[in-house]
Design goal:
mainly beta, three-stranded antiparallel beta sheet, 1 helix, 51% strand, elongated
Length: 113
């Protein structure tokens, strides 16, 4: 939903056991249309939008309303990469369908018109 906060959790497992995410970082791009589209927004452990629970393998992604508000297209694509040292793996990918917002909030308050 455009302009809404979205929270998603997933557990990364290998051979049925949670991956220990100690010393891992994660990053995610959301692009318009396809993999060549413009980046609508980025999420990462560095910015705090993605958190990793070391022993449980839980990855928590929070798309703040201020970022989802910038998704002004019907369909986006994304992927999520995790990294530890030189090792990088893409563990999630897919499409996101955006439900357009009618009510919009600007930096100064409600937007009318």
């Amino acid at each position: 939903k455009q302009g809404s906060t979205y929270i998603f959790e997933a557990t990364w497992k290998t051979n049925g056991k949670p991956v220990d995410l100690y010393e891992y970082t994660a990053r995610m791009h959301v692009r318009s249309g396809n993999h060549k589209g413009i980046i609508l927004f980025e999420l990462s452990t560095e910015t705090g939008d993605i958190t990793l629970e070391e022993l449980t393998g839980i990855i928590r992604i929070v798309i703040p309303a201020t970022k989802s508000d910038k998704a002004n297209v019907d369909t986006c694509v994304y992927d999520l990469e995790v990294q530890k040292g030189d090792y990088v793996e893409r563990i999630l990918e897919g499409k996101i369908r955006i439900s357009p917002s009618v009510t919009r909030i600007s930096a100064r308050g409600s937007e009318h018109g």
